[in-house]
Fold these 4 entries.
Entry 1:
Amino acid sequence: MSTLDQRTIGIIVLSLLGLLVIVKRVATGSVLRDRPGGGLRLWLTHVFNLSFLLVVNPLAGILLVSRKLELDPTRLALEPPWLALGQLAGLLLTVAGYLLMAWALLRLRGNYQPGGNTPRATDRMVVAGPYRLVRHPMYSAALCIALGLAGLTQSLACLAVFVIYLVLIGLLIPAEEAVLKRAYGDQYVAYQRQVGRLIPLIAR
């Protein structure tokens, strides 16, 4: 049984997703035409990311709005007050994740490319906005959204999605940063030393 109003939460999730799609289109000029560079690992991560954002999130939002989430057989057996705390934390993480991803996209604009692609001659290394706080704010945002959704839905399936995301991103970042080092050299190495990977001030 949910302690927060499911319909309101569902509307928030769907609204944030719609806002993110608009921001992505405005900032980068496309929504789904991105093609990641690199091998199979990068393609799998890209497909997983799209599936999570464009299938799992809308489905969770629709289930919340229709108040049918209690049909999920993987729901965690938490009781108030832990249920309320988990859902509140989930809502805050979800909202923060969507806002962080939108901020990162707006900051990148024409410099945006899917992971693994070699920067173009016209691309500049972006170190402002959320990139002052973490080197990979879009991955941080995706993890916040995934963990937040697990808290909102109290679902082991959503928690498993977060764990898979964490593993994939952990495998992807070294490959992506190797490309950035080749493109930007000492400038990127210095940036790595100064800014945390996914969490501010941690794992520089």
Entry 2:
Amino acid sequence: MMPTAHRRLLFFLLAVSSVASILFASAIGSVSLDWSQWQAAITDSSSEHGELIWRLRLPRAGSAWAVGALLSLSGCLMQVLLRNPLADPYILGVSGGASFAALLGMTVGATAAIIPGLAWAGALVSILIVFSLARGEGPWSGTRLLLTGVVTASGWAALISLLLTLSPDSSLRGMLFWLMGDLSYARFPLWALVVLLLVFMACLGMARSLNVLAMGETTARLLGEPTGKLLWLVYLLASILTATAVSIAGNVGFVGLIVPHLMRLIVGSDHRILLPAAALFGGLFLVLSDTLARAILAPRQLPVGVITALLGVPLFLMLLNRARVKQ
């Protein structure tokens, strides 16, 4: 277990790096600002560069941090829930329901302001479908939950393909960007930060139970944990985190899969330490990825999901090879 002093230093570095990444993102883009221009823009929001930073770049960077933290926290919970290190936030169909509702809104001409609300509503419908179908009779079954989620996700994918086929060409580009993960229309995510804080506090309060649950359901039951209620609570919290992230940025892949792995290698498997470390690093990772997506082909912008996939695939293969060598 990591010593207390080292933990505090790690959390401090991650917190400072998160703030620094957001400030760095506000200065980088198709219009790059030097130090004096950036400083003047920060102090005067009504100036030309001030409008750029305060109305576009800072809200987008804040959204990227929130989405990264949400997905990383959700990934930690999903890996405990399914007791599978390859589980990610999108595995149980929540993102499919959110994506279908958001794309349906784009198809009928809904404004960008209400797309997040539609996505959250679609995610809620998917949560209810999976919850009601997987609950069934008798004791909890992680296998039944997984199968129900995978089948539900496949159903949503079919409906999404149908929407893309029937959609007009004028809206198809925006829909595809959103499916790949896009923060172009993100606003300051105050509500998402509130959701993140509330769920994080709930998860931290049950960190000991998560540690026990990660050892197996039988072990958890023998140690007195109410596994049935605990597993459904973990599923619900992970789904809320995923729904909130998808409603802001669409499907941003690999963050909820890679970040928990990396943090587990650094801080260990104690969820009292892993959860805050993963949330902080996940936010930092996605802010830097989105900054790269905006700057690499400026003035053109890439979907941030493309960058996270390009970074996540080799990183994940390295982690798999590391695990194989240890075995």
Entry 3:
Amino acid sequence: MIFELGKENSILNQFIAEMRDEEIQKDSMRFRRNLERAGEICAYEISKKLEWEKKEITTPLGVANASVLKQQPVIATILRAGLPFHRGMLNIFDKAENAFISAYRKHHPDGTFEVQVEYMACPDLNDKALILCDPMLASGQSIELVFKALKRNGIPKKIHIASLLASSEGVEYVKKHLPNNVILWVCAIDEELTSKAYIVPGLGDAGDLAFGNKL
């Protein structure tokens, strides 16, 4: 199941437009804040698909019947670009458990690359709702490798993948290589993916834009 949130006009589209704009991108603090706000919106939409239960809440004047989350999700983030996006989700799911995992492209002299995972800090995932967030879903290989690593800590009962931008190729890759119970949430889908796995028109390197250039 795929939800493209930017198809319906909302303030989210304003944030996406600013993050794409090469002039506004010069303000890294604004880029981080917009990425955080996009994470908040994604978390709100994802919350509609989580499990809820009824609970009696005692107020100063009586008892109210309320709907509350049956179980808090686990929010997993791919370092480093995912940190502001993660922060936005944590603003909404403020009682959530959290997981952090590193994944990077190791480039070879011939221009090819492979994705490597080196670090993971993760709670038990068995029978929990997992939200795996990464701002850019390009080829889809990173998400697949990260999910395989996370499975060492248990099998979630529901998997949500959230991205700011995705390529059509990346979306198809996720559909083919990840479990059928995955729900994919993307703010926008771009058609082109270059030979070096960069989304076009995309927005550039989200990690560099948020935290500065790397060597």
Entry 4:
Amino acid sequence: MTLLSILLSWFPSIIISLAIGSFISICFHPNFLNISCLIFILYGIPLIIYRIHNLFYPLEAGVTYLLDKKYSPWWGSHQIQTIYIAFPFLETLLRLIPGLFSIWLRLWGAKIGKNIYWTPKLEIADRGLIEIGDNVIFGYGIRLYSHVIKPKNNNLMLYVKKIKIGNNVFIGAGCRFGPGVNIKDETFIPVTTDLYPNKNANIN
């Protein structure tokens, strides 16, 4: 791993430490400034660091190897987003306010259409690597993974590709999508469907 990879692996711990310190400050001095500081730590800092990181190390589709000496942009971006996977309630709160979660994803670089229904329990591993059309309904417990890792030749092969979901799509509860999945317009995906990398789906 490169030095930058090691440094960014500490990013979630830094955010948690800052959030704990801010929360303690709120307990002793509950005011608007301290509350705003906590919100900025949890939502603002990761987003800003991600945008800066993506400016210098943009995510690219394809195959790379994590144990190579070359820096992996995906690794850094994943570490920045890990806090939302470890503490999903942070994004669950956003999904309770209509339209807010879609705005949040757009800030991360995702392409999100209109009239999206997000259920409270949803996992997105790579926020900047999804494209979603209009009038899409997500069922309970859906997981979107725009990357996959597997051991190969004494290394870890990483495959990254955007997940694309068309217009007027209904996705049943418990579905899991891998990188490169492409769901056509007017598609109904049954519950607990697993779509593997680069699968084109048109299930009605």
